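Dear support,

I submitted the protein below through the web form. The confirmation email said the job was done, but the results page showed an empty box. After a refresh the structure appeared. I'm attaching both so you can tell me whether what I see now is the final result or a partial one.
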Amino acid sequence: MVNYIVKKGNKYWPSKEMKRIAWVTDSKIYKKAEKNPVKFWEELAKEGIDWRKAWSKTYEEKLPYFKWFKGGKLNFCLNVLDRHIGNGHKTALIWVPEATDERTIKLSYKELFDKVNQFANALKKLGVKKHDTVAIYLPLVPELVISMLACARIGAAHTVVFSAFAPDALQARIIDGESKILITADGYFRRGKKIDMLSNANKAIKGTKVNKIIIVKRLNKKMNYRKPYYSFDKEIEKYPHYCMPETMNSEDILFVLYTSGTTGKPKGIVHDTGGYAVQSYYTAKWNFNLNPDDVMWCTADIGWITGHTYAVYGPLLNGATTLLYEGTPDFPNFDRWFKIIEENNVSIFYTAPTALRMLKKYADGFTDKRKFSKLRILGTVGEPIDEETWNWYFKKIGKSRCPIIDTWWQTETGGTLINALPGIGPFVPTISGRSFPGTRHEIVDDNGKKAKKGNLVQLPPFAPGMLHGVLNNHKKYVETYWKRFKKKYDTSDGAIMINNLFRITGRTDDVMKVAGHRIATAEIENAIDKHKQIIESAVVPVPDEVRGEVPVAFVVLKSDKPSEKLEAEIKKHVDNTVGPIARPSKVYFVQDLPKTRSGKIMRRILKNILKHERPEGLMTLINPDCVEEIKMVVG
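What the results page shows now:
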């Protein structure tokens, strides 16, 4: 098997073979891009994306907003599908169902093109217009990709909602986006069980503007399709295989994706068309050495930004094959992912440290039976990866011959922004690497002065795929990203500079990373506080060996006595309101929560107690006596 990596000292570097095949191999590209980032991106945009009209201005900055390729016109779906039709027989999408006795589906670029065009025509017939927003609440099925691309073809923005979210979470996103059409499914499979989705959708649309629901039949439930219900399959069959793609402005909205905010209300992150197209195309191509003959498997759910950019758009923009798997890593056993990699000749594998920790713990023996001979690039995403897990990934799955691209980015950035490039390196455990060419980051202290350890910020000109606001909330956009550091984008992540390379240390705000997914403590608290027996609550994250972080809740009751039954009830309440991913691992019942005189709950003190550290800053509390009581409860 080919070695793509060599060790020199305490670092790993690309081998001669990787240097031979990588898209970018000369480290001078960083200096070239730094000299004139705007010109750098302009040249990339001309080469990598098909434009219907050239732009009049490459970059315009009027903070807190900025625009790329102003005046340029294009269609995103055309770039994903139409330009690859010349090689239409090539596989675009491999879909692996959870059930092992169910057939894997492969769609060629031509087949995907036909279905997308048919569904685009169906959406138009059902009243979807240019600039409308379509809500998509689907599991990992091919229809999800078809729906996203159909929206892009007719110029409608899509907002994809994670399939495991509860009705309240879905409803909040539908209302904020003012969606009138919801695309959902009758359900999906999870560890062999049938999960009902349609009942969640029916609950969620109450009080919204949704007047049509298009249903994908995954569980093949019997349905009586009467308004407002429509069958995805029946609608798609009605229409021709071509729909004229809408011409869109570069700065038109491509999609809105909701991320947790510290107020509990999710933020609708806005991504435009042209800038996102350029960044997703090149970050997929360069970071993963992506070629048309590659099979890329990004294990993220499409309901998250990683799934948008690297399970759908990045691979397809590059004419490669993307793989989607419906199920979990442990069904029917922990060899499932490894079997999928080998059976489908996966060459690029991109997953989260959470999943790797689970596999390291339970599936170590299975890796010895697999050669993974087609694998060339490994990637990690979602949270910092610890050295032990990095080494296990490198040795057991990469067989000590594949580079690990440790990527840092966010829902807001649209694509990866800090990592090593396969043809340049170095690849160092726990260290992400350098800013992607054409972007600039630095570390500052709390006063905004440059430092070696502190807050990670992005400097102008800001990357083309960056967010272009928070939907319907200019104030939140300014306060979250631009208020703290003048003319610098505040990532709310911490970092350390080591030998001119970035090591990411994690969140600096009240958002936790559970299994690689961002969830606000406030969103969970809001759910808990809706319980009839609860006065208030505070949620903080604690480290978890498998999931990275898990929520722990501190709860003040109205009258009920603490009990295991009530704890289980609260956990189930969170399941039903936010989703199982937000479920607290432990609920502590306390008499009071530590608060400042302004009423702010001091979660930092709760974290100190959980870590058995000495809490500091008690003099700022209005109720310092509660700290000792909480210590006794925690034990």
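Response: this is the final, complete result; the empty box was a page-load delay. DSSP finds 20 helices and 33 strands in the chain.
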